[in-house]
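Re: the multi-chain job from yesterday

Posting the exact lines I submitted so nobody has to dig through the queue logs.
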Amino acid sequence: MSTVTARGRGQPDHPPARHVDPEARRAPDDGAGERMVSLAAGSLLVAFGLRRRSVPGLLLAGVGGSMLARGALQSPTAQAIGRALIGAQGEEGLRIAHGVLIDAPADELYRAWRDLERLPSILTHLERVRRIDERRSHWVARAPRVAGGRVEWDAEIVRDEPGVAIAWRSLPESEVQTAGEIRFQQALGHRGTVVHVALEYRPPGGRLGALVATLTGVGARRQVREDLRAFKRRIETGEPITIEGQPAGRCGGLGRFAQTSGRTS
Amino acid sequence: MKALVWCAPYKVQVEQVPDPELLNRRDAIVRVTSACICGSDLHLVDGFIPGVEPGDILGHEAMGIVEELGPDVPAGKLAVGDRVIVPFPIACGRCFFCKRGLTAACDNSNPNPELAEKLFGFTTAGMFGYSHLTGGFAGGQAEYLRVPFADVNLYKVPADLHDHQLVMLTDVFPTGYMAIEQCDPQPDDTVAIWGCGPVGQFAIRSAFLLGVRNVIAIDDEGSVPERLAMAREAGATTIDIRGESVYQRLLELTGGIGPDLCVDAVGMESHGYSLDALYDKVKSMAMLETERPHVVREVIRCCRKGGTVSIPGVYGGFSDKFPLGALMNKGLTVKTGQTHVHRYLPELLEHVRAGRIDPSFVVTHRVPLDEAPEAYEAFRKKRDGCIKVVLDPQAGPEAA
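And the result, structure tokens for all chains:
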């Protein structure tokens, strides 16, 4: 039941296999060797994922967590340690909720979000969203290049009220269980519209995945917050404010000397 | 082009740097004809405000001529060749705050808001030449200045006024004015102003412009006599912090009730002669405190019950021994903030045009940009009667 694929670069781009025979995972030849590989690869992915402190990092760590769990949970000692470590963690994964006040009518903002294929230009952890039909779409999230990964799933729109809300969730067979909702609430007075965004990622790997998700949650929240700020700024001002490319001095000559010698008066 | 660059605490120098370019479609490039050194530049140079990086171009009080305009600057708003002043906060003109005239609180103009959010909870507007806490925008002490959202941040000015009358509108005049105006002064109020640097001088004159008749100016007669002399010229009663007890004198001058409106126009690097000032000096040198808030303590202590404390002076971080008890028990109102320059420009320009004030009174020095490092020193040490320095980026090094 793997819809999450960590692909190498250069591999053909095809929809993920959705129906892996569950028996295949418990085959007798899935022994010590594979367990070690799972543990090693899983640890690596968790480590990379955690370092990223982002939504892709979270998903990657989740994939790693899944592999780690597969390797670890078959060893009695590791099982005990694992239980002690993650016993207190829930299985809900990561929820991100944020609101941003934008000086624009709800209808205009709704239109910017309704075209799911344009969503990656707002939420930067997404690489692309491809429409399959009126309700369903295929989603690809970014993952660190070094791990060669992308994370993919299919999702369906579950709510669509023009000017009010859009909500989607991954199809039941996806291994990344994810859901999202955008609500457009007219603010009091003439303040514009509050855009409420709620995202939920339940990464693969069960409880270990949830632990990893909790650890990466801070970075993921920050990323979504920054994405929404950029969206608000683009809508309100029409351009991204920047200082990239402005002049600066090099502190040549005595200036550099002063830097190393500290206060000069 | 030439620009004044910060390299290390207490070290600035003039360097050749690349010319600025249009980075966005609503940007403009201004050829700077006058750029001032501000008291808050000293806070930056001295390392009291976090987030200044080696190579940063300083200066947030600039004016000049529009040299180049981005393609999305609305036609008819500005033209190449227009004479303009540049308010020091950068406003987008569209956000919640800009629409309410709170342009120094613009939500969209700081490209690096996370630093300020960590420190203050929310970010201020981006500001020119004023640390990466406020966006790290290259400043105006240079031959050319890039201005974002040019249709909002360039204000056209008439040709018949001198640069020195106009460049004060970018910061110090509106800052002194807002310090009084936002406290809703009444004609029978007594206004006491600590610090008679340029902001204090404009606060004194703004109080009179706004109908106040009793203004008291407080500074150090021994080290900066020219400042108190300037305050007396404006019609203020003066108190010398070294010669007399400020609190006692204020009681005497107000019949024992204290001033109605007390203004801290000094800010974070106040130099006092009391025990608490020494305490702050030691703590800030040991990096245990970011401010020397001696003046704001005295302001709160001296203010009458139910009065208003106004703080145009700049603070950047955290203060010790803040007299919260006096603030609460006396029921004081606090008014402060970076200056919403844009909102005050029409009425202040009107005061200038009508001849009710000539903002150039405060200028004591005009020097070529090449001499800026020496001018910073003269300003810091208040040598040679130095109150306000205007830099001329277009003058050659040999001109005076």
